[in-house]
Transcriptional regulator ATRX
Amino acid sequence: MIFLNCLFLQDEKDSPTKGGRKKIRKVMSDKKVADETKAAAKAEEDRRQRVSDLQKKVGSTYSSSPTKCPMTTKLVLESNKEDEPLVAVNKHLIKKLKPHQVEAIQFMWSCCIESLKRLKKDEGSGCILAHCMGLGKTLSVVSFVHTVLAASEYTKMTTCLIVSPLNTVLNWRNECSMWLKEKDQLTVGFVYELSSVKDNHSRARYLREWIREGGIMIIGYEMYRNLTNTGRVRNKKLKKTFEETLVDPGPDLVVCDEGHILKNEQSAISQAMNKIKTKRRIILTGTPLQNNLNEYHCMVSFVKPRLLGTRKEFLNRFVNPITNGQCSDSTAHDVKVMKRRAHVLHEMLAGCVQRKDYSALTKYLPPKLEYVISVRLAPVQMTLYEKYLETVGQTGTVSAKGGRLFQDYQALSKIWTHPWVLKLSEIKQEAKVKYDDYEDEDEELSNDSFIDDSTSESSSSVDDNSDDDISLKDSDSDNSGKRTKNTRAKTKEKKKKNKNDSEWWAEYLKEEDKHRLELSGKLSLLFKILSMCEEIGDKVLVFSQSLLSLDIIEDFLDTIDKKWQEESNEKSEEEKLNTFGKSWTKGADYFRMDGSTSVALRQSWAEHFNDPENYRARLFIISTKAGGLGINLVGANRAIIFDASWNPSHDIQSIFRAYRFGQVKPVYIYRFLAQGTMEEKIYERQVTKQSLSQRVVDEHQIERHFTANDLQELYAFRPDRLDDPNRVEKTPILPKDTLLAELLKSEKDWIVTYHEHDSLLENKLGDALSEEERKSAWEEYETDKNRQPVVNRG
C-alpha cells in the first residue's frame, strides 16, 4: 500500500493552526481507515503499475525522445496487435508541441483512459496538470481532446466540457479555433462557447446540439453553477436539458481550467462541479497549492475521489504532521516525521499530478531577469506614515493591532503609493457611500483571509445570467423595511467614520499635490521607466492590487497627455512626427484592465497590444486580481509589480502574462517595495515561505500565523533618510539590465537598493563584491556603454 504508518499524528481538533507545536496522537492504523479509502489507494497503485508496464512496452512508438528533442513527429497513444496506430495525435498538431506538452498528453491519456480495453470496463478517473503559467497547458489539452474525440470510433467519446473563469472563456474559444483549423482537417464536431449567449432557451438549444453532434463546449464557472442549480431555473423543460447535458449523464470528458478555484469544498462552485457524473476529469492549474494542504485535498478529491481519504483521515495522516514539523519550536522528531510524510504524499500524488516548473520554458525563451527594487519614500510620505502609526494605527496592545492589521495595511499602502491616494479614497468613498457596504477591489478580503494570505475564488465581473428564467431569490425580502433602516444607519455611520479618518492627514495635503509626481518614489520611478522604454521601443505591463493605484497612475497619464496636446497644437506637422510616443491617450497609447472590463474588450485590447506593428500601444495597467490569469500579453517584455502581494502566486501569475511562449525579447521584471515599510517585511515573509514550498508542490504555504513578535516587526518603520548624518552610501552591484543601470544612476535618490529575485526559487542576493570591485564594474559599464549605438524606436 502507498500509505505509510508514521508515529505521532493528531486529530483535526488538535491541528496546530495557532501557536507552536502540539502534543499529538498516534496515527490511524490501516485497519481504522475506511475501506473505500484503502480500495481507492489500491486501485491507483495497480493503475500506475499497468501504466509503467505499458510505457516500457510502447516506448518505441516515439520517433524522437521528448526529453531531448524539441520536435516530436509522432505520438501514438494506442496501437492494435499489428502495431497499427488506433489513437494518435494529429500530425499537424504534434509538430507544434514542445517535449513537456507531449509528456502532458501521454500523462492525461494514462490517467483518464489508460487503454481502450480499460475504457470499456470502468468509468475512468482524472488528473491534475499542474504546469507553471506560460507552459502552454491550453494547447496540451486541445491536442489531447482532439485526439480522443477524433478517435471516437474506438474511444466512443464525442463530447468535452471545458469550464473556466469568465475572463478566459474567449481565450479558450480562440485557442480552439486557432489550433483546430478546418483546412487542416482538424475540426472535431463544433466548438461552442456559452458565455455570449444571453437567454436560457438559446443556451439549452446549443447544449442539445452539442450533445447530439459532438464537439467542445466552453462555459464559465458561474454560469455552470447557475444552470445546474435546479432552484434557480424555473422552466421544467430547460431544467431537464441542463441536468442531462451538464450533470447526469453529462459529457464524456470534463476540463476545469484554473482548477484551484475548487479549493474549498464548501463553496457553491465546488459543490456544483462535484455533482457531475463524468469521472474523466482534468484540472489545469499553474498554482496547485496556494495556501494549505486542505485546499489541495479538495482539488485532488475532485479528480481522484477518496485517494487521500476523508478530510479527517487526510488531516491525521498528512496535514497535522507536516504542519507540526514547520513550527518554530518543532522537535527534531517532528521535523523527521514531517519530511517522511511529505515524501509519502508526494509519491502518492505522482501518478495523478504532473508538475512542470518554468525551467521547461528557459530552453525555448529569451532570458528573464527579475529585480526587487527598494524604493525610498518621499519626506511627506515618511511624515504621514509616522503620523498614522502615532495616531490612527496605535490601538494599544500588539494583539489588538493584529485584529486591525488589514485596515492598517490598506491605509499605509495608500501612503507609500502617493499621499493623494488618501484623498482619492475619501472621494471614492463619499461617492459610493449611498450604496450599501461599498468595498473597492483591493479591499474584498476579510481580516482572516488577509492574514492567512488566502485568495478569494475567481468570480466573473459580468453577470452570466440576465434572463427571466433564472430566479434571483432574496432571503430578506420580507424585511425590506428593516434592511432600509439598517442601510441608512450604516450610511450615517460610514460618513462619520470617513470624516474622522481624514482628519489626521488633511493638514498635510493641498489641492495641487495631486499633480506632484515627486511626492511618490514609486510613481517617479514608474514614469521614468515608461519614458526610457519609449526610447527603446519596449512595451510595459504594470500590475497593482489596488484600483486606487491604477486611478492615480491614470490621472498622471492624463495630465501628461493634456500637456503634450497643448504643446503639440503650437507645433508643425514635422515637429509632431518627431515627438511621436509622448501622448498618453487611453485606448490607443495605453489600456486599463480591472474587474469592470468586459471579456470582449480584454481580448480585443490584448490583440492590439501584442501587435508588433502597433508601436503606439505601449502600456497596459492591470488589476492583479482581474488580469493575473488567462491572458497573453507577450507584446510586453517589461513588467512592473507595483505592490507586493501577500500571496506570492498573484505576483508570479502576473509575471507569466509576458514570460510565456510567443515572447521574443528578454523579459525584465521590476518589483517595487516601499523601503522600511510593512510592504518590505511582507515580501521578505513570502520569500521565506516560498523557500519551503517544494516539499510537496510549488507555492506550498504551510505556516502563516503571526506571533506577537511578527506583528511588532510588521509595524516597525525604519526609513532610509537622505538627510541622515549616519547614512552610508554604497556603490550598488552593476545589474545585467542596462535600463536598471541607468535608473541606479539617474534616480539614486529614489532607489535605496536592489537585488535579483527568482520568482519560483529562493531569494538570490547576488555575489558579495568589494567596494573596489563594484566601482570597477561600473567603470567598465560606462566604457562599454559609450561604444554602443543609441537604439531608437523601429
In short: The chain has a mean pLDDT of 76. The CA atoms of residues 77 and 109 lie 7 Å apart.
